[in-house]
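Reviewers of the previous submission asked for a worked example of the structure-prediction workflow described in the proposal, so we include one complete record here. The input consisted solely of the amino acid sequence. No template or homolog information was supplied to the procedure at any stage.
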Amino acid sequence: MFPLKRSAEQLSDFIDKSKPHASGWIGFYWGKTPEEYRSGEKSIGAAITLAWLEMFQAKSEAIKH
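From that input alone, the workflow returned the following C-alpha cells.
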C-alpha cells in the first residue's frame, strides 16, 4: 500500500479505520532509508516516499497483530 492519490496522513487514517477488518497490509520497500531520502534527491516522489516510510515507522507498534 502506498499513498498514490492520498497523503501519508490519509493512509494512516485508512489503516486505523480498517484495522478491525484487516489481517494486515502489504507494502513494498525500495531499500532506501529515510536518512537517504532526506539527504538525497529532492523530488516529489522522494518526498512522498519519505512521508510513507516515516508514517509506517511511527505506526509500527500500533499495527502489529
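The chain has a mean pLDDT of 89. We consider this example representative of the routine output the project will generate in years two and three.
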